[in-house]
Amino acid sequence: MSQDLKELFESNRRWSQEAQARTPDFFSRLLQQQVPQYLWIGCADSRVPANEILGLLPGDVFVHRNVANVVVHSDLNALSVMQYAIDMLQVRHVMVVGHYGCGGVMAALQNRRIGLADNWIRHVQDVRNKHRPWIDGMPDEEMRMRALCELNVLEQSLNVCETTIVQDAWQRGQQVVVHGWVYGLHNGLLEDLRITAAAVDDVMPAYGSALAALKERFDAEWNN
Ligand SMILES: [Zn+2]
Hints:
Helices cover 53% and strands 13% of the residues. It has 10 helices and 5 strands, in the order H-H-E-H-E-H-E-H-H-H-H-H-E-E-H. Zinc ion binds next to helix 5.
């Protein structure tokens, strides 16, 4: 690896040439404007790149990523991304995408100290605490870990629905659908946790049924 990262610039030039070879007006079209339909709120983990996983091109998905895909009501960064995506770009779908094997979720589950991020991961520990008796009742750590990754998606999706941004959009009749998904590092596949909400009245029923389905699935697994 060179100090000035020449190899990355070479790789970038190749990518640019290939994109233009496939679609000659690719960049000039993107220059006009972006009209993404999706806002992806995912983990910062390098193994979970939004566009690549969805097979989408630049211009197709607006992205916000942080450690453990957390949505906090006082996080100006996430809220600004959401507000711009929903109010200005008028995205139709917002997906919170967690992933199995998430280091942030694991640190939260195991009370592991990693540094400044401990304060951020506190939010995932709040999720763990909310569901603690159920999680603690599980037979092994691997299952607890998978369960907390999924629970975190449900809780963060709920947080998205409860932001003033999404609430206001729904209030004025704008079509925005919130989704909660989880991604498998082991197989490259996305799974819908079915907390889909498209209106204020959808939120609690969607959360309730998604949570019940999640628990039922894990309960069945460990009772087998
Ligand atoms: Zn992660």
